[in-house]
Amino acid sequence: MNRRRKSPQRIWDQVSDAAGTVPLGRPVGPPRLGRPSPNPDLSQSGRGGRRGRAGGRKWLAGTAAALAGTLVASLAGTTASGNPGKPGDPADQTSPQVVAVAAALDESAALPGAGAIAGLAAAHLGAAQVGTVSVSVRDLISGQDLFAAGAGQALAPASTLKILTATAALSVLGPDATLTTAAVLERTGPASGTVTLVAGGDTTLAPEAGRPGEVMGRAGMGDLAWAAAVELRRRGVDRVEVRLDDTIFTGPSTYPDWQWSLGTTWGAPATPLAIMGGRAGAGFDAVTYSADPALAAAEQFARLLAVHGRDEALALPPVMVAGSVARGRAPLGAETLAEVRSAPMHELVGHQLRQSDNTLSESLGRMVGVALGEPGSFAGCAAGVGQTAAELGLPTAGLKLDDCSGLSHGSAVSAATLTAALALAAGPSAGDLGTVGRSLPVGALQGTLANRFSQTAAAGNVRAKTGTLTGVTALAGLVQTAGGRELVFAVVANPDPAAIWTDSARQSIDRFVAGLAALS
Fold it and tell me: Which residues pair with 132 in a beta bridge?
């Protein structure tokens, strides 16, 4: 049954109602005095999902230009973006040398023969090489299926599942929607009160000042604390306690078979609020994660609120922060002090795909669920993303989502589902979904493919989402043949780790995709 989607503002209204607060409005508070101005994205309004809207730009033109720009940067010595060594998507250690960049599509280019693709599959995707496998290859222009082997069999997808999460986030929330973190005040006396930090799904906050133009750190916890302190002091409040309202998400924050990977290098627990993606170390590239990212973020907010509350540069009475941070719902009638907003959804999705950000993916999936009236839980995430996939017309036979990042071995997605999603996002009528096609990592250049496909026909050509767990390796994306034909492909393999080394299976898949790129 189709459900009426809510605009971003209606989502925040729903969250406010559920938490017992007033709806959050535009940011309150002056620019910093003698400091960088608050994040310019504070006032950016969201746009609701407009799936496949008319007039969408052709995907390939933008992609080719982006790839060309990346190639120039690479040849000029610019370091490729991303963290190619990110655990969960291991990469080769060979230095990437770009040898090709995809050119514009040529609709007159010859289709590669089905026999040639079958030959590549026989050579590289046999049971002894990759174990149980689901394979789909189709032509982007015509939509013709060129090769299928177990294409409808749903297998554990690892991080290729993020393609479905990204597609749902763009479709349901909209490409320009932002995630809001707010500070609200409940007065407990003439000059005292409780400041509640209301989480709204943003796991990308900077610890102090926001970083305009960046995805990670667009909103700054320091900016929020400063603006809130100024408002408190202007209102004559001299003593507050700090509370955290993260009730937009419910239920367990970790899935049972995540436990072995959390706290190390794969991601934080599912959370509606985090600084630096929940990383516990210093900086955005730290690879250890907090066990309670939302509470850690609230504690940082409280510390900064205390600092700004007594800042002598402000010619206003000081405010003292008392006690430690506790959890609790923001009450009805609370006054909005200030809010900060994330980068827009299309940028968040781009980061999520390029860097395979598990924490952000879980948050986006749950926000999709909330927007569709589901709880902000694993079940709500699965229901929201699964419903959206069905409404977009994707084949959903066997589809099972334990989470929205792909960390669980219990999720199941077929290669046919992945190629259908990518064909929709990469075609000329992609509209808002085109961000998915444009944001995939690029072979030998970018993201989790930066150290793969070097010195092959797929270097600078293949754009694909990686996926790796123990006993799971997958790759799904787009590649242009030497003859100029754009192909959509997905390979999801579940090798028995006792018999086949997962990295060996990954290398076999890479050889298959490099072979596709070399076809004339």
Answer: 494
Contact 359, 274 (CB under 8 A): yes
> Band of the pLDDT at 264, cuts 50, 70, 90?
low
On whether the CB atoms of residues 405 and 161 are closer than 8 A, the answer is yes
Q: Between 446 and 99, where is the model more confident?
A: 446
Element (H, E) at 194: strand 192-198
CA atoms within 13 A on the CB side of 398: 16
Q: How far is CA 82 from CA 238, 353, 475, in A?
A: 44, 11, 18
Cα gap 359→140, rounded to integer Å: 31
> 3-state DSSP call for residue 205?
strand
- pLDDT for 125 beyond 90: yes
> Is 214 in a helix, a strand, or coil?
coil
Instruction: Report the pLDDT averaged over residues 246-263.
Output: 82
129 φ/ψ sector (left φ>0, alpha ψ -120 to 50, else beta): alpha
Residue 429, number of CB atoms within 10 A of its CB: 14
- Whole-number Å distance between alpha carbons of 25 and 43: 10
Element (H, E) at 355: helix 345-355
Count of C-beta atoms within a 10 Å radius of residue 106 = 13
HSE, CB side, 13 Å, CA atoms: give it for residue 60.
Answer: 22
Q: Among residues 479, 485, 473, which one has the least CA distance to residue 514?
A: 479
Token pair for 25: 């409005």
For 381, which DSSP code? H
**Global pTM value:** 0.83
Task: Please tell me what DSSP assigns to residue 179.
Answer: -
- Residue 453 identity: F
> Tokens 């046919």 — which residue?
416
CA dist 301 to 62, 183, 315, Å?
39, 10, 22
pLDDT in tens, 81-120: 233 223 233 333 233 333 333 345 678 899 999 999 999 9
| pLDDT attached to residue 284 | 56
Selection from 14, 377, 381, 329 nearest residue 164 by Cα: 381
Separation CA 227–CA 32 (nearest Å): 8
pLDDT in tens, 298-326: 999 999 999 999 999 989 999 999 999 99
What is d(CA 130, CA 491) in angstroms, rounded to the nearest whole number?
A: 10
Task: Identify the three-state secondary structure at position 72.
Answer: helix
